[in-house]
Amino acid sequence: MAAATVDRLARAAAWRRFTGAPTGPGWVRLGDRLRDPAALDAWYRAELDGPAVGHRDLAGALIVYRFAGSLAELLMGPLLDQRRVLVVTVDDLALELAEGTRIDAVAATPAEVVVRADDPDAGRPGTRVVRDDGGLAEAAAAVLHTVFDPLAGAVRARAPFGVAGMWGTLADHVAEGALAWARDHGDDPVPAWQAADTVLDHLAAREARLRVRPRPHPVARGLYADKGTCCLIYKAHPAATKAEQLAVAACTSCPLRPDADRHARFTRHAATTT
Predict the structure, then answer these.
(1) CATH second-level architecture of 2-213?
(2) pTM of the model as a whole
(3) In this structure, what is the dihedral angle of CA atoms 95, 101, 105, 110, given to the nearest 10 degrees?
């Protein structure tokens, strides 16, 4: 059951590479990494000396950003596509790291899958049955919290990037990932947004430090997400002033961009993808 769910995700995912088992060099078991202070220090140092170009807060933000995107798609992809939730812990996840920073792939070996009562496999070994989509959303939020919380703590111990910002980054990825999944598969974005928003309702009930959430941004017949949290990536740009950095290097959906600028960028993106 779990292996089949991961396999379908791997075949359907457009952005990231997922697999049911880590093979070959370069893989790191997340639980092992989180229990190894020296390895965590090295992970942070690789970001600091590399993409973060010496910015300590950005180094922490990048670790969080990369992992949050992968975790969000791992949960939201099956939820939207299969009406299933993979129940994973930090010991069920392995990351394939490129040069110590970028996450090239995620391996997931869950022991259980949460399914609705109308799922054809409901009741089989390895399934936990919930009544409806609300139960799936609650299960997804529980997994997000279980896996993300220890990573956030490990990063905060090394980098001056606030924990509220980390949870906000995860929330942004949950929403953006759901909408991207809908665009990539030709699905209606409104149910995808509603599913993500419900997951975030349950996550916010579990985590008081999730204070800022993304907002829906309609563009023509499409839907995008205005981030609630800046990922700080603009700081890596060598421009002389913050205003120049933001203009050139901030994400399209960055909350530090003016609303009109963000809308114009979303509109141009929508025009190239329809």
Answers:
(1) Orthogonal Bundle (1.10)
(2) 0.96
(3) 30
